[in-house]
Amino acid sequence: MADAAPPDVRPVNPNFSSGPCSKRPGFTLEALAGAMLGRSHRAAALKARLAQVIERSRAILGMPDDWRLGIVPASDTGAVEMALWSMLGPRPVDVLAFESFSQGWATDVTRQLQLPGARVLTAPYGRLPDLGAVDFSHDVVFAWNGTTSGVRVPNGDWIAADRTGLMICDATSAAFAMDLAWDKLDVVTWSWQKVLGGEAAHGMLALSPRAVERLLSYQPARPLPKIFRLTSGGKLIEGIFRGETINTPSMLCVEDAVDGLAWAESIGGLPALIARCEANLAAVARWVLHSDWAGFLAEDPATRSCTSICLKIVAPWFIALAPEAQAAAAKELASMLEKQGVAYDIAAYRDAPPGLRIWGGATVETCDIEALLAWLDWAHARVAATRA
């Protein structure tokens, strides 16, 4: 098997990175020809283009009419940090930490903000924390989808309808790929660089009326940097939610975001985007079912992500290795595929268990996923042979 010929079929698009993610099918730089470059983002035409990103995003996602949505600095990270630093404090906080980024939010809450009464509900990679242990009189910070673990919450049923705290949801690898329970959420964040394949550096911040009420009624004692400020003089800075960004945006990235949204609309909106993601997960699931060496990192099928599809290596030869050797073997497998030009950036995240991470978001074609799977078997056989 180790000297078997490589598969005949190659992915047409070998980009399986989990961020920045693959561009939409058929994308070329000509799609950005209409970008209004070299002009002030405060000009009316440019503000209108920014507002398009907001309004078309709202429409595709089915966001409630009474929510506000704005473009903010520093990608999803900036959007989450704005919410944490601006809103947390008046209630105890529960943070669900089950992968790298949600663990980062836990660190911010406990070590940087040093909020009294904060609880961190943890789970190892591959599992969710005990959702039944969440106290909904507390503010709750969680990721809808764990980008580095391939684990997602199955739905919003676990969130109490009569909650009194705020639900702050990092949805960066879930927005446009999964049904978000808007009636159970209060703050939702994402970035352009994930499911629609946009460019990096810009984040989206969505606020429910309850979140706005918190901003207006609570003034943190801590100082807030300018890029975190959502209020002025006791009032919401409404311009943020009309395209008047806090800092200067890249109009090239804005044009790219508009292109991605237009593509999403053209294929049927959110239902079509979700279907594409789920088809990618289903293709991997069919392959895993018959694989003798690969398995899902997410243990419960109901919690398996359809975007950040994380795999572990379960072959006996791999399990017998020391942890350092496991990490080296998994990286060698991913590197071999990159050298062949069939899969870029599919090694597991640096903090995750050794394995592979295949982006299955809406811009990825299922036929490319299916072509990749045969190459995974080929590469595994070659790596395994060197350790036999």
The major pleated sheet works out as: 7 strands, mixed
What average pLDDT do the residues reach?
A: 97
What is the CATH first-level class name of the largest domain? Alpha Beta
The CATH superfamily of the largest domain turns out to be Type I PLP-dependent aspartate aminotransferase-like (Major domain)
Q: What is the tally of helical segments?
A: 9
Distance between the termini: 12 Å
Q: Bin the helical content.
A: 25-40%
Give the name of the CATH architecture of the largest domain: 3-Layer(aba) Sandwich
Strand order in the largest sheet:
1-9-8-7-4-2-3
Domain tally? 2
Shape: globular
Low-confidence stretches: none
SSE string, helix = H, strand = E?
HEHEHEEEEEEEHEEHHEEHHEH
Structural class: alpha/beta
Radius of gyration: 21 Å
If you consult CATH, what is the topology of the largest domain? Answer: Aspartate Aminotransferase, domain 2
List its traits:
Aspartate Aminotransferase, domain 2; alpha/beta; 388 residues; Aspartate Aminotransferase, domain 1; 14 strands; 15% strand; 35% helix; three-stranded antiparallel sheet; globular; seven-stranded mixed sheet
In words, what does this structure look like?
By secondary structure, this protein is α/β, with parallel strands linked by helices. The protein has two domains: about 35-265, Type I PLP-dependent aspartate aminotransferase-like (Major domain) (Aspartate Aminotransferase, domain 2); about 270-385, Aspartate Aminotransferase, domain 1 (Alpha-Beta Complex). It has helices spanning about 45-60, 75-85, 100-110, 210-215, 250-265, 270-290, 315-320, 325-340, 365-385; strands at about 70-75, 95, 120, 140-145, 145, 150, 165-170, 185-190, 200-205, 230, 235, 295, 310-315, 355-360. A seven-stranded mixed beta sheet has the order 1-9-8-7-4-2-3, sandwiched between helices. A three-stranded antiparallel beta sheet has the order 12-13-14. It is globular and about 70 Å long.
